[in-house]
Amino acid sequence: MASVERALILVAMVAAAAVLETAAATTYTVGAPDGLWDLQTNYAEWVATKTFHPGDKITFTYSAELHDVVEVSKAGYDACSSANNVSAFRTGNDVVPLTAVGTRYFLCGLTGHCGSGMKIRIDVVAAGSSPISPAAAPTSAAAPSASTAAGTAVLGFAVLLVVVLHRAIAVPLW
Fold first, then answer.
1. Domains of the chain by residue range
2. pLDDT at residue 67 above 60?
């Protein structure tokens, strides 16, 4: 195989890997589709149906006059205290990237809101794994997530792209 062919295939593979990583990321609107960042949504139920991975994003949508979003430590989360916060958001449409494996804690910093249930714990797990607790363990086979299906489709496209490029290069055009 000529060095130009190898270089083009390598470029195609790198581009496909980048597309796969982007396609596999998911953006979640906290509380959606039935709620938002408000006092009515049950966040424990909402988060129990999600699996978060590095690269995903969570969006908090709310009335900036009525609420805010404060990232806190576990101690702050447990105590409903935003005193020593990690960060605070107040736009009403805050996007938080989940960049690494670990647990993140968020609450509404307005008096009484956290105590009324306006707090959420986000467990970010490595790709290919899911947080399974005995209470949340599935009893039957679950359908693949949208991000898994998208990732599989993009991977298939990437393989097809490499094959097509190789065949196009292997056949002289003149």
1. 23-124
2. yes
Mean pLDDT of 91-103: 97
User: Which contacts of 82-89 are long-range, i.e. CB under 8 A and separated by 24 or more positions?
Assistant: 82/107, 82/109, 82/114, 85/109, 89/60
Q: Compute the chain's Rg from CA coordinates.
A: 21
Contact between 57 and 95 (Cβ < 8 Å):
yes
Structure tokens at 74: 């576990």
Per CATH, the number for 23-124 is 2.60.40.420
Amino acid symbol at 51? T
- The residue-averaged pLDDT of 106-121 equals 97
Q: What is the pTM of this model?
A: 0.65
